Amino acid sequence: MPARLARSTLAFLTVVALAGCGARVTGAEPESTGAGHYPVTVDNCGVRTTFDRAPRRVVTNDVGIAEIMFALGLEKHMAGYVAPDYKSRRGKLPWQDGYRKVRLLSRKQINKEMVLDAKADLVFAGWNYGFGEGEGFTPEGLRKLGIGSYVLTESCHSGPGGRRGVMPPLEALYTDLTNLGKIFDVEDRARALVAGFRKQVADARATVPAGKRPKVFLYDSGQDQPVTAGRFAGPQDIITKAGGENVMGDLQDTWTTVGWETVVRRGPEVIVINDYGDVSAEKKRDFLLSYPPLADVPAIRDKRVFVLDYADLVESPRNPAAVADLARYLRQARPA
User: Fold this and answer.
1) CA distance 128 to 126
2) Which tens digit of pLDDT belongs to each residue from 63-105?
3) How far apart are CA 156 and CA 44, in angstroms?
4) CA–CA distance from 90 to each of 72, 146, 189, 220 (Å)?
5) What CDD domains is this protein classified in (predicted)?
């Protein structure tokens, strides 16, 4: 889960992929324009990596990452996926069939043993979405086993202290779709997805009334200190493009913690709950509505609480639909 805030150094930027998936880290040479598509070179979190062929046994970590592969129609290139059981809205997804076609490897934390047992040639995961120095599950560690890695762009590290976030969240989604389209020789499909998602977001933005935007707080979890979303996490773009203002949008990070006093001071008029984990959205809502320090916060006073699924809010092909859903709610909740 991205709310696990273990920090990392930038060392991983030198070790994204290896020959296990027909990939090699390169310099700045241009991509091949010759016949046969391959080799192709992509930039992933600042590292240019050349693929001599499409990976054939990809293992993904987390539901949003699996669904990026499903949306691109890459099930035949997957050895399996690791993800908790986030089933909300799955039946409405145009790519839901991927869950039937691809083997679920585990609902627990991904690890080296899982990917070795699956004979993976590429792991598609993110920092704090599977990769982590604390667990020793890193691109560098996989490289030593002859297994390549592709890092989820939303989770890329940059800046002092290894803070995450290198581009706006929706652009991170479009970047990964474009890169994977090149890697797996499905560029037309990737372009069509990106164009469709951009239109879906543009259509939602066109419905946003002029005037003051509702102030929105994303509540992920936590009672002593709430976990929320800063500038580089998916909710930033979802809230902003839906017509709201992320009250924590000045935080130069993705998922992070703040103090309740900061929430109170910024006075959100709407709270969006991230629905996942052992604590249900209903229990999170009950906590927020009954927590005394929040009693005078406009969103709590007026009971303006909206729920989105975990996979809506982390980088995934569900993000554009989440923009449209939230835009509809915010139109009803706009301040006078």
Assistant:
1) 6
2) 999 999 999 999 999 999 999 876 666 667 889 899 999 999 9
3) 9
4) 16, 34, 21, 20
5) TroA_a
Decide: 305 and 276 in contact? Cβ < 8 Å. no
Domains, the chain, in order of start with CATH, read: 10-202 (3.40.50.1980), 208-333 (3.40.50.1980)
Identify the residue whose tokens are 């920092």.
127
Q: Residue 250 is which amino acid?
A: D
Query: Which residue ranges of the chain lie beneath pLDDT 50?
Result: 1, 3-19, 28-35, 159-161
**SS3 (DSSP) at 27:** coil
Distance in angstroms (rounded) separating the CA atoms of residues 235 and 158: 19
Distances (CA, A) of 156 to 49, 54, 234, 259, 314: 15, 23, 13, 25, 13
**Which residues 6+ apart lie within 8 Å of 8 measured at CB?**
127, 132, 133, 157, 162
Measured in whole angstroms, the distance separating CA 305 from the mean position of its chain's CA atoms is: 22
C-beta neighbour count of 211 within 10 angstroms: 9
Q: Quick one: tokens of 311?
A: 């996979």
- pTM for this entry: 0.87
DSSP string, 176-234: HHHHHHHHTT-HHHHHHHHHHHHHHHHHHHTTPPSSPPPEEEEE-B-SSS-EEE-TTSH
